Amino acid sequence: MKAWSPDPSGLPPATARVAVTPGAAEMIRRLRGEHGPLMFHQSGGCCDGSSPMCFPVGDFLTGDSDQLLGEIDAGTPEPIEVWMSKEQFAYWRHTHLTIDLVPGRGAGFSLEGPTGFRFLIRSRLLTEDERAALDLSEAPAVGAQPNPLGQRGG
User: Fold this and answer.
1) Average pLDDT of the chain?
2) Which of 65, 78, 84, 85 is least enclosed by beta carbons within 10 angstroms?
3) Which stretches in the chain have pLDDT values below 70?
4) Cα–Cα distance measured from residue 86 to residue 10, given in angstroms and rounded to the nearest whole number
5) Rounded to an integer, what distance in angstroms lies between the CA atom of residue 117 and that of residue 24?
């Protein structure tokens, strides 16, 4: 098994974009035991209430439109990747996200749904030092962008 760091960017742990609370880590270990390796995708959809969605690795396919935020160490044999759509990330890029667990019904597609608990994102703004370490000096373009060459996509 290869070694890994909590943040795949190689930045110091204080600069990681994502974290997990002990209660959420405990649920992740339980779900890992039942479903195998896991991953999260931070939903931005209306029906999911912007919830962090937990899936078995391979059940939710990520692609060019998704951004890997980082990996969390929940005490599982492998790190847990946390993803978000790039368009949503453009708005959330200045925040640190912590996956927490609270009582309540989880989202219909997330693995914790039937447990009586749900994952919840708690966020805070990145500090100036974290922003500098992550090089957030230039804001990315969000939404539809003009095509300066007038070419059609294809």
Assistant:
1) 81
2) 65
3) 1-14, 45-49, 106-107, 136-154
4) 20
5) 10
How far is the C-alpha of 110 from the C-alpha of 59, rounded, in Å? 11
Distances (CA, A) of 60 to 54, 106, 113: 9, 17, 16
- What are the structure tokens assigned to 152, written together? 């059609």
Which helix (H) or strand (E) element contains residue 87? helix 86-92
Residue 10: the pLDDT is 44
- A 10 A CB-CB count for 59 gives 13
pLDDT tens-digit series, residues 25-60: 999 999 999 999 999 999 776 555 578 999 999 999
Measured distance CA(52)–CA(44) in Å, rounded: 9
Closest CA to 120 of 105, 103, 106, 100: 100
For residue 20, count other CB atoms closer than 10 A to its CB: 25
Residues whose CB falls within 8 Å of the CB of residue 94, separated by 6 or more in sequence, listed in order:
125, 126, 131, 136
Q: Give the domain ranges of the chain.
A: 17-127
pLDDT digits 0-9 by tens, 6-15: 444 444 445 7
Q: Are 54 and 119 in contact (CB under 8 A)?
A: yes
